[in-house]
Amino acid sequence: MAENxxxxxxxxxxxxxxxxxxxxxxxxxxxxxxxxNVFPVPxxxxxxxxxxxxxxxxxxxxxxxxxxxxxxxxxTAKAMLHGARGNSGVITSLLFRGIAKGxxxxxxxxxxAWARALKAGVEAAYTAVDRPAEGTILTVAKRCADxxxxxxKEKNSFEYVLDCAINEAEIALDDTVKQNPVLEKAGVVDxxxxxxxxxxxxxxxxxxxxxxxxxxAKNTVEAKERADFASFNTEDITFTxxxxxxxxxxxxxxxxxxxxxxxxxxxxxxxxxxxxxxxKVHVHTNEPHAVLGEALKxxxxxxxxxxxMRSQHTSKLVEESQEIKELPxxxxxVSVASGEGLCEIFTELGVDEIVSGGQTMNPSTExxxxxxxxxxxxxxxxxxxxxxxxxxxxxxxxxxxKNIIVIPTKSVPQGINAILGFDEGNDAITNEASMxxxxxxxxxxxxxxxxxxxxxxxxxxKEGDYLALCEDKLLxxxxxxxxxxxxxxxxxxxxxxxxxxxxYGCDVTEEEAExxxxxxxxxLDNTDMEINLYSGNQxxxxxxxxxx
Length: 548
Known about the structure:
Elements: H1 12-34, H2 46-61, H3 69-83, H4 86-102, H5 111-128, H6 137-154, H7 158-179, H8 181-186, H9 191-207, E1 241-249, H10 257-264, E2 267-274, E3 278-285, H11 288-295, E4 299-308, H12 317-326, E5 329-337, H13 340-348, E6 353-356, H14 365-373, E7 377-383, H15 390-399, E8 403-406, H16 412-420, H17 428-439, E9 443-449, E10 454-456, E11 459-461, E12 466-470, E13 473-478, H18 481-495, E14 499-504, H19 510-524, E15 530-535, E16 543-547
Parallel strand pairs: 5-6, 5-7, 7-8, 14-15
Antiparallel strand pairs: 1-3, 1-4, 2-3, 9-12, 9-16, 10-11, 12-13, 14-16
Helix pairs in contact: 1-2, 1-3, 1-9, 2-3, 2-4, 3-4, 4-5, 4-15, 5-6, 5-7, 6-7, 6-9, 7-9, 11-12, 14-15, 16-17, 18-19
């Protein structure tokens, strides 16, 4: 840290220490934050999402030393942007993006600069959120920044300003119970606001820590495998073509485990080095054109060599791969889904890339961006299919030079209907409008389980009860499945729909699903209504039911 007992200023190395400690504190306290999630269904886990987001910055900063303050803040913001998960993670990344802008061109940060940076962070977050609600992380961050601005006028000291901001954040967090009706009913503070307070407190703690701070996740990942190209042994030729190439990655530090797995299935003598910026590959294969085409999904070629090990004639397959790259199609699709059956449905409807995720499994910005990079198309539609993934999807447009269009689908049935509104012959603007229009024609109901005992919206809910949801709102709770099915059928009758689709999950057998289909058919008792059953194999939800 800077040699200053009052810590009136901080440098780039100091800021690095603050971020790493914030990441560690979120990791240590994420379950406590998760427990504050009010809705009793298995949730998107605010604490886990914030922890994973800030952890990306900590891991990136631990690779670098002695960077100037502005570059450290910029690298922090960029890493969080790529790692952002869920609404809480995206908002956290936006706060730090604004902070980075506030610290632009600064080599040191005093109290005035820190107050200005916190203000910039709040402005960045509020600008990106539609209809920001009171009693959330945004409220806590805003009051935190307001207190910092006032404190900076009293004393131009980083630590003093941070300390005053924390004091106000504690009061603001307590006030979230009164500001948000849902929180007031549950008698808990806002989970995201708690996360932001933990971040601020961890920063203050790091100021006075004499020990070196390292980030250590509870679930550690082994270090990347390293190899030496000099170790090749090509005497025993099983596959014809020796294929070597270097790819400069579209996304630095993008995970390449899927590429390695693919290459292992395409030949032998594989040596693959990923240093974060480039990928070096040597592999013996009979299908170099397929290998090169797959590698193009990760970046641009720097060097390529394909040789026939028997005749030593250079293959012309590189040219063919480049031709594929130079002819992008007009439209591409990325959809978020979980469950083999649901993924197959989206694939059959023409979706190019399925990103695994949904409730409890929010993908990061980088996960979605990587999928976009693998699609050779000018216009790419993203279907989040979950309200907690829409903000993350919106971040992808800032990273890609392709035309990214996010259709704000909040459920799988909405995603399916959106694709049905697409017409290859229309332009992107027309397709966006028609797809959004199709989203509004379907009603989504879901059956899941109560993750814990709770009292919500006048209902006394017991852990393990069946929960019926309609458009993410709690419809009913009951220990008997038939009762919640009956509640859903009443809702379908009110809506006067003609087609019902039932997608059953991984915890439901085909026999049980057919019984549910029959029960719904009997309750609805409408010969003009079409009732379809599909194996979705999705987690979390026993049934996803759409009516249109």
